[in-house]
Design goal:
By secondary structure, the protein is mainly alpha-helical. It has helices at 6-27, 33-53, 58-84, 90-118. It is elongated and about 50 Å long.
Amino acid sequence: MPSENPLLEKSLRFAARIVKLHQYLISKKHESVISKQIIRSGTSIGANANEAVYGVSTADFIAKLQISLKETAETEYWLRLLLLSDYIDEPLANSLLNDCLEIKRILIASLKTAKDNKK
């Protein structure tokens, strides 16, 4: 577990929750359209953040974190839609949204730092 990097750790744990959500939506709710969207965006956050760590340049690092941030925003959208569509209950939605927004804050701060350091 990459415990030395909070972003990687949190995004990996979040991705695991998204995988479980996807399984729940498919098996219990028989929902396949939104579940495919959220598994793509929700697992992509950590994958791109992990890739950023191994970027070949600061510009590459920033570009990958920007993709992670965009995927976070998309995942937030799908979570809100699942809640409004009554596919998930409010406690689950709030828990997932809190994790998503925490990752979003970390990404925004990391991007700001990286961009400031690039100047």
